Amino acid sequence: PLEVGYTAHSVRWPMAGFWLAASEERRVRVLLTGIAGFAGSFLAEYMLQQEDVELHGIVHRHDRRIQHLLPHITLHRGDLRNALWVSDVVQEVQPDIALHLAAWSDVGGSWQQPWTTYELNIQCQLHLLEALARWRPQCRTLTISSNEIYGLVRPDDLPIDEDTPLRPNSPYGVSKIAQDMMALQYWNSHRLPVIRARSFNHLGPGQAADFAASAFARQIAEIEVGQRPAVVSVGNLSAQRDFTDVRDVVRAYWLLVTQGEPGECYNVGSGRPHSIQWLLDTLIDLSPAQVEVVVDPQRLRPSDVPCSYCDNRKLAAATGWQPQIELTTTLLDLLNSWRDQLARHSA
C-alpha cells in the first residue's frame, strides 16, 4: 500500500469533440501498459482512487507489485511486441484513456543491449498507437519519454524547458526520442489525441536497487540487520539531478492525460536539483547505523552532465500540478520498504 494517500475527485473527460462526465452511462475505461512496473503500480493505485474508473492493465511477466490490486482491475497478459495481440486487446477494451508506461528503463544497460532497448521502447509503443488509431482513434493517450532525450545539457540550457535541443548520449536516450517523436507523428498524421510526458528522475518505495538512492537504501538496511559490513559502496556522488517522488509523478501523468493538450509535450519534474551526495547523506541521517562510505570504481561512470533539472512551468500551467511530497519523506519510505523486505525474508 502507498504511504501517502490521495483524495478521489470527479473528473470530466474530453472525448472526440464532446464531454463525457464520469457519472454518465458507464465508467471511464482506462488501459495502462506496464501496470506491474515501478511507476505503473503506483499509477494503478492512484487511478483506482478516482471515481468511476474501470481499469485494464497489460502485464508481460510478474504481477508482484499489484497483487493487492488484482480484485479491482482487469489484467491482460501478453507481449506488446505482438502486434496482433495488442490490436485484439485494444479492440476488446475500447479504452477512453490509455497510458503507456511499459518500457526498458535501464539507461546503463542500454549500452550493453542497444537493440533490445530500441525494440522494446519503439516497437511496443508503435503497436499500441497503431491499434488505438485503428480501433479507438478518440482515445486520449499518454506516452512517457525521459529527461535522457536532452542528453548533453549545457549550463546555459538550465533549467531545461521543452524547447531545449535534444542531444542524446545513450542508446536509451535515442529510443525515448523515437517514442516522443512517434507520438507527435500520430497526432499530426492521425489526430490521435496523444500527450507526451518527459519525465525526470523519480524515486520511491519499492524501487529496484539498480538506481542510486535505492542501492544506498538497500545497503543501509542490510547494515542495520547485520547482513553486510558497515560500508556503503558508492559511485559518482557529485552529479545533480531533478528528483521527484514517484507518487507525485504518477499524479502528474493522470492530470496530463485528462487535462493536457494533445500533440504537446510536458516536462515532469520538481524543477530543483539535488546531488547524489545529498541523497546518500539524507539516507545515512535517517538510520541509526554508523557507516563508512567507500567509492567503488566499478560503480563510477563518467558524468558528461554535472547538473540537470527541468523547467516545469508548462505542466503547472496546464494542470496546476506541483510536487507535494518532500524528498526526505520519499527517502524514508524507500528505506523503510527495504527494511520491510528484509524483515519478511528473514521471518
Q: Briefly, what is this?
A:
By secondary structure, this protein is α/β, with parallel strands linked by helices. Helix content is 38%, strand content 18%. The strands form 5 sheets. The chain has a 7-stranded parallel beta sheet, sandwiched between helices.
What labels would you give this structure?
alpha/beta, two-stranded antiparallel sheet, 347 residues, seven-stranded parallel β-sheet, disordered N terminus, 18% strand
Structure notes:
Mean pLDDT is 91; it is low at 1-23. The strands form 5 sheets. The chain has a 7-stranded parallel beta sheet, sandwiched between helices. Strands 1-2 form a two-stranded antiparallel ribbon. The two termini are 20 Å apart. The chain is globular. The chain has 10 helices and 15 strands. It is α/β, with parallel strands linked by helices and 347 residues long. α6 runs parallel beside α8 (276-285).
Strand order of the largest sheet: 5-4-3-6-7-8-13
Quick one: how many beta strands?
15
Please tell me what the overall shape is: globular
Order of helices and strands: EEEHEEHEHHEHEEHEEEHEEHEHH
Helix content: 25-40%
**Major sheet characteristics:** 7 strands, parallel
> Compute the gyration radius: what is it?
20 Å
Task: Classify the beta-strand content into a percent band.
Answer: 15-25%
Give the rounded overall mean pLDDT.
91
Taking the alpha carbons of the first and last residues, their distance comes to 20 Å
> How many individual helices?
10
Structural class: alpha/beta
Uncertain segments of ≥5 residues (pLDDT<50)? 1-23
